[in-house]
Amino acid sequence: MLKLYTARNSICTQKVFITLAEKQALYEIRDIDLFSNEQFQPWYLAINPKGVVPALEHDGRIVIESTLIAEYLDDVLPGPRLTPADAHTRARMRLWSKAVDEGLFEATRELSFSAMFRERMRAMSEEQREGRFRNVGDPVKRARFMSTYEHGVESPYVYEGIGKFEIAFRTMEKDLAPGQPWLVGDALTLADINMMPYVARLDYLDLLDIWIAQRPRVQAWWSRAKALSSFQAAIPDRLATADLETMRSFGSRIRDRVAARRDDYVCQPRNGA
User: Is the pLDDT confidence value at 226 over 80?
Assistant: First the structure.
């Protein structure tokens, strides 16, 4: 039996949901309330010592880290293979996984925080805010949160995230050769599935076209991704209308400044440019 520990609108879990939908797998869900710090309860830390979601329980065995969970599910479940058989293509797929895990995850978190969660934290009492910051165990992560809270889009971490997305979309446009529907070839793989939730979040925040308006191959890829029944079931079907309206409303408030900072990033001279 599969049991997935997740949280409402968890972007990391969304790639797992897409994978499960592609595999047509049955599973249970256990929601973790992040805003009440349930992820730091001893019972959950025994499942995932990092105190984050998602976590997967399969017949009593635990798998953590969303990218690893997706690969694990592809290995153990029947259905279409989402990992290329060819070693070189598989390595290319994992480069996209690394791009997400080592850059786009934090970039999306910072943009989402500066758009939405910053306003929610401003409405908290000082004591509540300090409690939220104290509960962030990783000092690097805490510093990022505090900077984004204090400075919003002007935070250097947000600027860094804007640059990460610029590099990713530039690479996507290059890798999506003419006639190639997916990132590493003709078949849908975990490369595409890993990217979808992060592109979706930018779309819901009304920010996506800042990066892809002049990138027709990425636009075509996104149209194909959104049309997948697995994508629909995993992301938009799980979001309430209020969630979508909130993301668009808050994202629109920072849109002009994000676009300006992206233009500034693109215009900066770089070695080899």
Answer: yes
